[in-house]
Write a structure and sequence with these properties.
By secondary structure, this protein is of the alpha+beta class. It has 2 domains: about 190 residues, Beta-galactosidase, Chain A, domain 5; about 300 residues, Alpha/alpha barrel (Glycosyltransferase). About 30% of the residues lie in helices and about 15% in strands. β13 and β14 form a beta hairpin. α8 runs parallel beside α10 and α11 runs parallel beside α13.
Length: about 600
């Protein structure tokens, strides 16, 4: 890392994230996470290929399914088919044996949770055993039949549920089965499958004109114009897999001209890797990166290395992982599971990124990380197929102890001391100012421009869509100084004139200086979230391995509140340390005890 006169860069960051004291990551194999947070129950995610289906496509339907030409795409030089590369798979490996056992149990009539026709189709390509194709065809046929019955009753295909979120899994399974087992379909069956897939994809990209069984079924069109959203990856997966499997020229042209260019442009703007959706929804890149391989193998276009995002994301996730390798920095909503534990999905993301990057050092670092996380192999059967990707041996850590993902505005240093209280919630989707490690501004008579907050909320809210700045100067051995101007986050609310936050990290200690200007009637409270009940002695608060010392103002008042008491049933654990008395700012040092 540079130590003298490093370049300065002023970068846009998300207002809430820039203000959070969220310490995580580090490349060193130093200390394990002390006092693992208590589990918090939240909704589970995951996809299924068991829902879907369709009637014949409607005449005059707009979208990529219109004039659904099949066969080769002469202009693009693409022959129909998914062109899956399987030469990386070691059929003597433990991973292959586990995957084969997973599929064989389904063939025997005992499919595991979330079993996909894609798994069976993949095993057919690997072995040529007809029973695998028979299973895949039965599963997709059940999907189509379920949809046809729902549509005949006047409803919509199940694939349209939850704003078509599972379309990528459902249509992807159909496409994989079509690609591997097409010879086993009779003409009428093939026509029904084609109509269903064409209609699903046409409905996705033409939400106002969506139709099932000739009847209008419009929907919101959520995320169809947002290439940084996890829904978009599902829509793209459905379209790309079916377009390539069937050779639909109209869909292939639509991908080239309308769907892939905004995706590429979006990630061109995210140097440093990561996701603007944070680390919860950001793990959905495990579904995006495989599409890069699919498109490359069919067209030769390398989206994975067209910009630095995928390779940078390898370093992003290494640094977003705590030194003990068990957890990651919980930035943004954590809807799958509030407690930020490393899971199969993180392993999947890294395996895909490693397989695609053209940077040998990044690939080596990915192997190093994969060899140290507790998920040494997939724990869930529906993820066994991804374990067929090689993790590599050994590897070495990246040389930097600091990672600044400038595109998404996330900065990672070397240790883990405090977290957002969101990790102790039941839903994992609490992003209010009160749960983060920020200065909280309150005003009892607040009624002005509250950014969708309840009218009785006395907290001055940060506003979505604002652009604050973060200036970072790296130092030696992972040290850094940084200045964040959070004033724009409040969108001109007269309850706050200005707020700047200064960070100085060196030798394992972080000093935070807050400077703000507030009118009479506004109170500023410095807050920090910890798991254990804090012990407070004058200007010092201690919790677990953390010691927090308030250096300014000298007469600051410290207190602690239990989250289950102040936040209600949503919160399962955790404490909030509050510091009051600052009229113009606070100076606080955080260090290990």
């Amino acid at each position: 890392m540079p130590t003298a006169e490093p370049p300065r860069r002023v970068l846009p960051v998300h207002a809430v994230l820039a203000a959070s004291l969220l310490f995580a990551a580090g490349c060193a194999d130093s200390t394990a996470l002390d006092a693992t947070p208590a589990p918090a129950v939240a909704a589970t995610g995951g996809g299924s290929s068991g829902a879907g289906g369709a009637p014949p496509a409607d005449a005059g339907q707009e979208g990529p399914g219109e004039a659904a030409a099949s066969g080769a795409d002469p202009a693009a030089g693409i022959e129909p088919g998914l062109h899956a590369r399987l030469d990386h798979i070691d059929r003597r490996s433990h991973a292959f044996s586990r995957f084969r056992g997973w599929v064989d149990r389904a063939v025997a009539g005992n499919p595991g949770y979330n079993f996909s026709a894609t798994d069976a189709a993949t095993m057919y390509l690997l072995t040529g055993r007809q029973a695998y194709c028979d299973l895949a065809v039965r599963l997709v046929e059940a999907q189509v039949g379920d949809a046809e019955r729902a549509i005949a009753a006047g409803g919509f295909a199940p694939v349209a549920g939850n704003s078509y979120l599972e379309a990528g899994h459902a249509i992807g399974a159909l496409a994989a089965t079509w690609d591997a087992c097409r010879a086993g379909l009779d003409p009428a069956q093939a026509a029904r499958w084609t109509a269903y897939a064409d209609q699903t994809i046409a409905n996705i990209w033409n939400h106002r004109g969506a139709r099932w069984g000739g009847r209008p079924h419009p929907w919101t069109g959520w995320a169809t114009d947002n290439p940084g959203n996890n829904y978009y990856y599902s829509f793209l997966a459905a379209t790309m897999s079916w377009a390539l499997a069937s050779g639909n020229a109209a869909m292939l042209a639509d991908l080239r001209e309308r769907r892939i260019p905004p995706l590429r442009a979006y990630f061109d703007r995210l140097p440093g890797g990561g996701s603007s959706e944070g680390t919860g929804y950001g793990v959905s890149h495990m579904n995006l990166f495989p599409l890069y391989a699919l498109w490359r193998d069919a067209t030769g276009e390398d989206l994975a290395n067209a910009n630095s995002h995928l390779t940078d994301s390898i370093h992003y996730w290494i640094h977003a992982t705590v030194p003990g390798f068990t957890h990651y920095a919980p930035i943004g909503d954590q809807a799958r599971y509030a407690n930020p534990e490393i899971f199969d999905y993180h392993r999947a993301l890294m395996l895909h990124a490693r397989s695609l990057t053209s940077d040998e050092r990044a690939r080596d670092a990915a192997s190093w990380w994969l060899g140290r996380i507790p998920v040494s192999e997939m724990g869930q059967g529906f993820n066994f197929r991804t374990d067929l990707l090689p993790a590599g041996d050994g590897g070495s850590p990246p040389g930097a102890l600091l990672h600044h993902a400038t595109g998404v505005g996330h900065l990672f240093a070397q240790d883990w001391r405090a977290v957002t209280a969101n990790i102790w919630t039941r839903s994992g989707i609490n992003q209010a100012t009160s749960v983060h490690n920020v200065v909280r501004f309150e005003r009892s008579d607040l009624r002005h421009r509250q950014c969708q907050a309840p009218l009785d909320d006395i907290v001055v809210q940060q506003c979505h869509g604002t652009r604050s700045t973060l200036e970072v100067v790296p130092g030696a051995d992972g040290a850094f100084t940084a200045v964040a101007d959070l004033t724009p986050a409040y969108a001109g609310n007269p309850a706050l004139r200005s707020w700047r936050r200064h960070f100085d990290f060196k030798g394992g200690a972080l000093t935070v200086r807050d400077e703000f200007s507030i009118p009479a009637g506004t109170e500023a409270i410095f807050q920090l979230n910890v798991r254990e009940r804090p012990a407070i002695d004058g200007q010092v608060a201690s919790a677990g391995r953390l010691r927090m010392t308030v250096l300014e103002p000298a007469d600051a008042r410290l207190s602690a509140q239990a989250w289950p008491e102040i936040g209600g049933e949503e919160f399962r654990d955790g404490w909030r340390i509050e510091v009051r008395g600052g009229e113009r700012g606070y100076l606080v040092r955080l260090e290990a005890r």
